[in-house]
Specification:
Number of domains: 1
Number of helices: 4
Strand order of the largest sheet: 2-1-3-4-5
Helix content: 25-40%
Strand content: 15-25%
Shape: globular
Distance between the termini: 50 Å
CATH superfamily: Response regulator
CATH class: Alpha Beta
Radius of gyration: 16 Å
Amino acid sequence: MNVIIITACPSGMAISFLAARRLEQAAQRLGWQANVEMHSELEALEPVSAQAITEADLIVVAADPVPAPQRFGGKRLFQAPINEALPDPQAFLERANREAGEYVPPNEAAATNPAPAAGGSSP
């Protein structure tokens, strides 16, 4: 399985780095191929490539909110706060694989499910 792991922590890089390394090691133990993208408070340090996203079977985001989510449209995505990934990274990844759903960017979701007319009454 090809997985992209994204970490970001509002408290700083130390937790993001620690979570990224522990999740990457857990992915390897599971036999998964992992690409890692760590974020500082402002930006991705090394963004994953468009090719890696295309080839990914699963996107795992240990951050809140998901950084630049529109690039993951149509992919299986799981997101949870970074602190949930640290106690047991392998269990976190297994949960991500079970619970991930297809990500639909908000602008696409609105186009396929238009809002009801103002007033909410039907004719």
